[in-house]
């Protein structure tokens, strides 16, 4: 089990990212930010740039829509790392038609190998009505399974609603 | 921070309104009910009337699909108030194309200004798959943001499932 | 109130079934499994068969898409029973156009009558955006109401996310 791995689960606009950032920055910096959002258009590029400007000084940002696992190996072993978010990373893997089994196993190894603390932000997407769209159903299933796997190796798990945490673990 | 402000979060048919009503009526009445549902048709008008008949004696009902903030200023400052629900009020503001920023700031001021206890019932709507519909996505984002803001000024926050509460705050 | 009734609530792929199975098998077997999934096609038949093979020895499986209540009366009164899941049973009742009021009252009586411990797995489906589809809205409402009713008679209620439990009751 990794030393210090926190999974921050929550819905859309639940305040999970802000909650995670506050926890990370309570540690001494610099903090490494693993951004998994992918800019498909100008609007998205602008939102990503804005989010980057909004973060306080002291953050080092890595754009890793697919290359998250490699980046976790590459950054200094003891620095605090925030991954935002795991669910977008999974979406990117599904759209890129990579082998999920292999990718997830490699991600788990990279997480376990880190010495410094890691926070993973993830969406809980399975609490609505069954989606009619087949791809949405598959994505929902894969996201739930991945949250369970990370929940197992995490030392702490929080569920966020209205910006406030419930402790699922640790 | 207001004296005594409770946010009751939950999904559809989670029992959040009944939970809130039970808390309110544990205080001495009369209790003021701020109803934000809007009757667009006869069926809805009948459901609202039925809900009104179902409430015990001792409730004073205010129909405030848009005028919630004014009503919070107008009712006696020390009486217990239940707002059901915040998410419908937000929907009504979005459909009426009012300035959300202004409306929400005014609502917060009205809540902070009250001396008596206030309960706000709200829907958590961000825990399903991303909606395909643009308006639904915007609504989901605004509802999540509003829940975070109210969560910040609330003294107590509860998440309800199957009629039972989890304490997020207080 | 029944002696020992646990409601396990959670989203899709939240790990609720695995959590429930682990609790059940911590009791001495044999354990009775009430499967409510209905095989409409070969793929579904194969998934059900696979799930059956995956369960450890010691399980006795009953296929009860509609006949759950009768089976609860028929199996020996003291054996541990797992119902997976209540929400599919409700879906089957809605599709079969039975009288829900009567069916749910009979189910409650059967649950209260059991001497041995019972686990009910159920989906929380009300935490997304309001579905556009009328049938989906009705299903969502009925599922929420049923969860509330079972939550009331249960001695323990757990909400599962990422395979981990939050205690709503007991």
From TrEMBL, chains A, B, C:
Database matches in SUPFAM superfamilies: P-loop containing nucleoside triphosphate hydrolases
Protein name: Bifunctional adenosylcobalamin biosynthesis protein
Binding site for GTP: 10-17, 35-37, 52-55, 63, 84
Entry-linked PANTHER family: BIFUNCTIONAL ADENOSYLCOBALAMIN BIOSYNTHESIS PROTEIN COBU, PTHR34848
Organism the protein comes from: Roseinatronobacter ekhonensis
Catalytic activity: adenosylcob(III)inamide phosphate + GTP + H(+) = adenosylcob(III)inamide-GDP + diphosphate; adenosylcob(III)inamide + GTP = adenosylcob(III)inamide phosphate + GDP + H(+); adenosylcob(III)inamide + ATP = adenosylcob(III)inamide phosphate + ADP + H(+)
Active site: 51
Chain's role: Catalyzes ATP-dependent phosphorylation of adenosylcobinamide and addition of GMP to adenosylcobinamide phosphate.
Matches recorded under InterPro entries: CobU/CobP, P-loop_NTPase
Keywords: ATP-binding, Cobalamin biosynthesis, GTP-binding, Kinase, Nucleotide-binding, Transferase
């Amino acid at each position: 089990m990794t030393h210090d791995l926190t999974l921050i689960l929550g819905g859309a606009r639940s305040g999970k990212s802000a909650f995670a950032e506050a926890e990370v920055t309570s540690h001494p910096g610099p903090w490494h930010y693993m951004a998994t959002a992918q800019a498909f258009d100008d609007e998205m590029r602008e939102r990503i740039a804005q989010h980057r400007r909004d973060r306080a000084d002291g953050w080092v940002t890595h754009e890793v829509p697919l290359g998250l696992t490699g980046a976790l190996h590459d950054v200094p072993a003891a620095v605090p790392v925030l991954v935002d978010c795991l669910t977008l990373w999974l979406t990117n893997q599904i759209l890129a038609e990579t082998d999920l089994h292999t990718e997830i196993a490699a991600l788990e190894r990279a997480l376990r190998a880190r010495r410094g603390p890691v926070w993973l932000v993830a969406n809980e997407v399975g609490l609505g009505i069954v989606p009619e769209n087949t791809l949405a159903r598959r994505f929902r299933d894969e996201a739930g399974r991945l949250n369970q796997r990370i929940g197992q190796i995490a030392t702490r798990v929080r569920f966020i609603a209205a910006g406030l945490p419930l402790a699922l673990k640790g």
